[in-house]
Amino acid sequence: MLATDIPEQQLLADPAQLTAAGAGWTAREICQQPRLWQQLAEQHRGFAAQLTAWLSPLLAQPQLRIIFTGAGTSAYIGEALAAYIQQQLPLAGQRAEAVSTTDIVSHPQLYLGSELPTLLVSYGRSGNSPESVAAVQLADQLLPNCRHLLISCNAEGQLAQYARQHPASSLLYLMPDAAHDQSFAMTSSFSCMYLATLLTFAPDQHALSGSIALAQQILHSRLDQIRAQALQPCQRMVFLGAGPLKAIAQEAALKYLELTAGKVLSSFETPLGFRHGPKSLVNAGTQILLLQSADKYSRQYDLDLLRELQQDKQALAIDLLSQDQFATDAALADVWLGLPFVLWCQTLAFYKALQLGVSPDNPCPGGQVNRVVQGVTLYPLTE
Fold first, then answer.
1. Is 60 exceeded by the pLDDT of residue 371?
2. Which residues pair with 151 in a beta bridge?
3. What pLDDT is stored for residue 51 in this prediction?
4. Domain range enclosing 231
5. Is residue 175 included in any domain, yes or no?
6. How far is CA 207 from CA 105, 197, 252, 336, in A?
């Protein structure tokens, strides 16, 4: 299917509301994602030879350690994909893991104390977050054999500049220009950097086509359903998902919290983990969205919890998001379902913000939270 933009005005019955509500950028950046994913895949084909030539010597090292890193939303990309990519690595002694830049910067010697050859995969929408730059510098300081794959949406950001200044040890993978979101919260930047990682380490054109088709179905025919979910008068919002979908649930919870300016508390867990304490938060003001795994074995646990929550009759609303609800011939693995599922959750947060009278483009006009993190003091590491 050829992906085309769904006009952002489709998110609202009255297009004039987009400007009045301070929602135009966020609406556009949510709606453009299916087209951007296709554009990125085409761009990747032209970049693949250079990327393969650069990566091949690294992937030939039997003890290679790959660290996926970023802050906030960017960190969740690695958390969603690391275990899956671990399975795709060619040699048994290689490993892939996710460590946020915020953890690396605060405890560098805990995470960067290895003598193993290391590939640090850094994500950054702007590439200017203080921790992103510091994590690269700390890796160079502490790791004797480190290379950098810098995945960013900003050609002029500090991560991109680092790549140009260190061509022997680094490679820049730049996203399409439109992925450099102008709104406060990351939407298309998250999904494009997520997709770039899959295209690099686990490409699957059939799965990508299926993800694009599901996303287009959501934007063409499921907006009323999402809007109805957003109109629920919830005081607490819970996103549940397991495996790769745990990090998608985590990103969904953050997006919901960000776009509603914290007016509705949101949280995430796995379906199995939810019973171990977090289920205590369920009351008559709690709304729950369960992201169902595509894996036949894993979804048994999803459905067990769904039935339990329905039988408890405590929650305000319980919704299931499942591949089965869409018309598709593609049987997508959870890592590929993450793309349309996160779009659904972004749209839900968008509508909830509008219901609460919050501008999705600028939900924190007071500047307590910023589009690019500010106020971080970086301290030199004396070994």
1. no
2. 123, 173
3. 98
4. 223-355
5. yes
6. 35, 14, 22, 6
Residues 217-245 have pLDDT tens digits of 999 999 999 999 999 999 999 999 999 99
Torsion of CA 183, 151, 141, 130, to 10 degrees: 0
Q: Which two tokens stand for residue 319?
A: 């919704």
Ranking 170-184, 212-226, 359-373 by mean pLDDT, the lowest is 359-373
Q: Which tens digit of pLDDT belongs to each residue from 127-156?
A: 998 899 999 999 999 999 999 999 999 999
Single-letter amino acid code for the residue at 123? Y
Residue 66, in any domain of the structure? yes
For residue 246, report the phi and psi dihedrals to the nearest 5 degrees.
-65, -45
322 vs 115, higher pLDDT:
322
Residue 174 placed within a domain: yes
Cα gap 267→252, rounded to integer Å: 9
Are residues 254 and 287 located together in one domain of the fold? yes
Percent of residues, the chain, with pLDDT higher than 70? 93
